[in-house]
Amino acid sequence: MKSATDSAEAPADLAAPASAPSPAPTGPKLEEIPLETPIQRGSTTISTVHLRKPGAGEMRGLQLQALQQGDVNNILALLPRITVPPLSQQECEKLEPVDLGAMTGTIQSFFMSQMDRALLAKVMGAIDSETSTS
User: Fold this and answer.
1) Mean pLDDT across 46-61
2) CB-CB contact of 37 with 96 (8 Å)
3) Among 85, 74, 60, which Cα is nearest to 108's?
4) What is the helix, strand, coil percentage profile of the chain, to 5?
5) Helix (H, G, I), strand (E, B), or coil: what is residue 27?
6) Which long-range contacts (CB under 8 A, 24 or more apart) does 58-67 make?
7) Higher pLDDT, 24 or 15
8) Which of 2, 11, 23, 105 fits a 20 to 30 Å CA distance from 97?
9) 80 upstream amide cis, omega within 30 of 0
10) What are the boundaries of each domain within the chain?
11) How do residues 77-105 score in pLDDT, each as one tens digit?
12) DSSP letters along 40-84, please?
């Protein structure tokens, strides 16, 4: 079994080739948004965007209350700062309403406490069980 230091000392020629696809970003502060209308960037099609939970500095010049309420101008100003892969301002402005809505909902969830999320999950579970028995 190799240790972390073994892999760090591996020769450069054993590293993954530069053309290998990079793995999808993971971590507790990233949320995946599958796009209903993919973004075409040259020959690249972006069908999934990840949103990184913003730090306080990335929200400079924006209004927290406006972000929480889903104000489009504030959301569009924040998206280029927190998207993976990074989307340009122009790409964000061309998003379909359904994709912008999904991203807005995710951004709003970043402002929820763990207790708020647990309560929302409980309510959504109750709604799902009611609709599945109807």
Assistant:
1) 95
2) yes
3) 74
4) 50, 15, 35
5) coil
6) 58/82, 64/111, 67/107, 67/108, 67/111
7) 24
8) 23
9) no
10) 27-133
11) 999 999 999 999 999 999 999 999 999 99
12) EETTEEEEEEEEEPPPGGGGTTS-HHHHHTT-HHHHHHHHHHHEE
Q: What is the mean pLDDT of residues 55-82?
A: 96
Torsion of Cα atoms, 66 then 70 then 76 then 80, to 10°:
90
Closest CA to 93 of 122, 71, 113, 73: 73
**SS3 label, residue 21:** coil
Which residue's entry shows tokens 């949103």? 51
- Tell me the CB-side half-sphere exposure of residue 75, using CA atoms within 13 A: 22
Contact at 8 Å (CB) between 19 and 57?
Answer: no
74: left (phi over 0), alpha (psi -120 to 50) or beta: alpha
pLDDT tier at 134, thresholds 50, 70, 90: low
Strands 44-52 and 30-41, bridge-based pairing: antiparallel
Sort residue 60 into left (φ over 0), alpha (ψ -120 to 50) or beta.
Answer: beta
